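User: hey, got a sec? need ABC transporter ATP-binding protein folded
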Amino acid sequence: MRTQGEELITVSGLSAGYGTVPVIRSVDFTVHTGEIFAVVGGNGAGKTTLLSTISGLLHPTSGSVRLAGTDITGWSPERIVAHGLVHIPEGRRLFTGLTVAEHLRLGLWNVPNRRKVERERTDRVVDLFPVLGERMDAYAEVLSGGEQQMLAIGQALMREPRVLLLDEPSIGLAPVIIQRVFAVVDRLREQNLTVILVEQRVNQALALADRGLVMRHGRIEVVGTAAELAEDPVLRAAYLGAAVAGEQRNKE
Ligand SMILES: Nc1ncnc2c1ncn2[C@@H]1O[C@H](COP(=O)(O)OP(=O)(O)OP(=O)(O)O)[C@@H](O)[C@H]1O
Ligand SMILES: [Mg+2]
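Assistant: Yep! Here you go:
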């Protein structure tokens, strides 16, 4: 197993929901620098809500989130991004009418010295995703689903974040493309980037992850190393259901 880096994200007693409806309840876990941390669980378990609460899109009703020792609870999403945590939402959320190059440039929004770093960072993204280099002037809406996911990740990487929150990057992609996206996540780990990966493809996510957790009805059911989770009887039973649900959604 990998040696653990320092504690980078510490989630303590985190609860949040929509209006008066609670969704996640008393969630506690830590993620270390350089880890790929998988968050798995069935539809409606609260995975997206958890990511949104960490990235400041939702305000917690109680509990806290610390990033590299700084309490970021209640910070605006913009301030959290500037502090090095970037959330790539479910469904990629690209802009129609903007090209690949424009999306990458947009990733540098608010970055100091962005004109100076643009070329070097673009080169780094293209090195990870050569297909983006070939399609710099293409509009986002004409890209394939896989290319769009790569662009969404590439745009986030332009900021050189410390932490990436990645919500279901495999949705709607063919298996061979999913493998390519996961291979890139694996390479990000080599660069000491920390990734929280929400996935319905439990098998593949655990093969990639160092540690992770299983959510159910807004609570953590198990947290541990990827190997421990893969052995967990509750997850193994639930996983078959989740895998089928994921496959059905991918056919839509
Ligand atoms: N914007 C919202 N307003 C009200 N309720 C919401 C909203 N988003 C999600 N919920 C509810 O919160 C619960 C958790 O949803 P969430 O999207 O966090 O689950 P998830 O684990 O990401 O599911 P999926 O695998 O389908 O993406 C569900 O019961 C859902 O209906
Ligand atoms: Mg979700």
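Quick note: The radius of gyration is 17 Å. Let me know if you need anything else on ABC transporter ATP-binding protein.
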